[in-house]
Amino acid sequence: MAKQRVIIGLSGGVDSSVAAWLLKKQGFEVIGLFMRNWEDDDDDEYCNSRQDLIDAVSVADIIGIDIETVNFSAEYKERVFSNFLTEYQAGRTPNPDVLCNAEIKFRAFLDHAIELGAEKIATGHYAQVRESNGHFELLRAADSTKDQSYFLYRLNQEQLSRARFPLGQLYKRDVRALARKLGLPNFDKKDSTGICFIGERPFREFLSRYLPDRPGDIVSLDGAKLGEHSGLMYYTIGQRHGLGIGGKGEPWYVAGKDIGSNQLTVVQGRDHPALLSDGLVAADLSWIGGDSPRTHVVYGAKTRYRQNDAPCEFESVDNHDCQVRFAKPQWAVTPGQSVVVYESQVCLGGGIIARANALKESPLTAFAA
Predict the structure, then answer these.
(1) 161 and 59, same structural domain?
(2) Domain span at 41
(3) Does 196 map to a domain?
(4) Is 322 a catalytic residue?
(5) pLDDT category of residue 44 using cuts at 50, 70 and 90
(6) What is the rounded average pLDDT for all residues in the chain?
(7) Alpha-carbon distance 295 to 297, whole Å?
(8) Catalytic option among 100, 312, 322, 347
């Protein structure tokens, strides 16, 4: 009986390397696929894929699997980077990693893998898939500190049915220990951070290549001018550093951006009410199971990757947008970022934050009982 073919995205990092080894150990026919998603300035110190390819090839040789390279840079520019620029130009703060997973790693990559005769694709993401009677659920990883289900919330049933996440039950420390035991050259390689096409380079310098600076005023809530900004695209809600304003009292934080007046509004103190929201409106919704969450039922939600679940309820939800209310005010809810909803260990999906709601005193229906 022929082995089931699984094609894994082999990035050159330790996670995908160990994931590939695990798949081969489990008896699959494993083929590595190294993806090139960015070419504009891939020859400098910040985002060099050449070393990643060298590491991926070395790992494939040690594990004993074939590897090929595929160029998705055109798809990436069309489906991910263009959205990235549009969002920043509109004053929002996007998360391109979410779109990259949905449009590149689990669409362009998946289509290519199927052409190569693969029945499944795999990645080094820390997440899990559970199947029951033909229905697929996305679950959190066992290692809560590395769980990446937040970035996968836009996957649909077809994509999940084809996906394998070999690291879902493992802890990062054990992955590195296994890589070292196997003699993989990247066992202690630093985890990649930030957006792949930006890498470690200064964000402002990168963005200014593609969008023109539009300086304007930095103002307080009462409209008093406090300084000048370089362009609203360089700032995000809750930002403290890089504002260029000082003075007595607590530090200043970004509380709002007005595209029409080109003004950046700031407040003093991390706990200022203007930085807190008891709800939000999200659009561009994506529900993994197909069905929307029920209204007035308690769920957990994240409005950014590194945060604990915040108890919430849906006041309304339809095909276009939803209204979410939180049991406790949330800090720096940022338009353009994703709100991702959970029911215990199951990721239900989410949407793009359109706006944050100001604080209100009315209690949540689901928490009032």
Answers:
(1) yes
(2) 5-182
(3) no
(4) no
(5) low
(6) 92
(7) 6
(8) 100
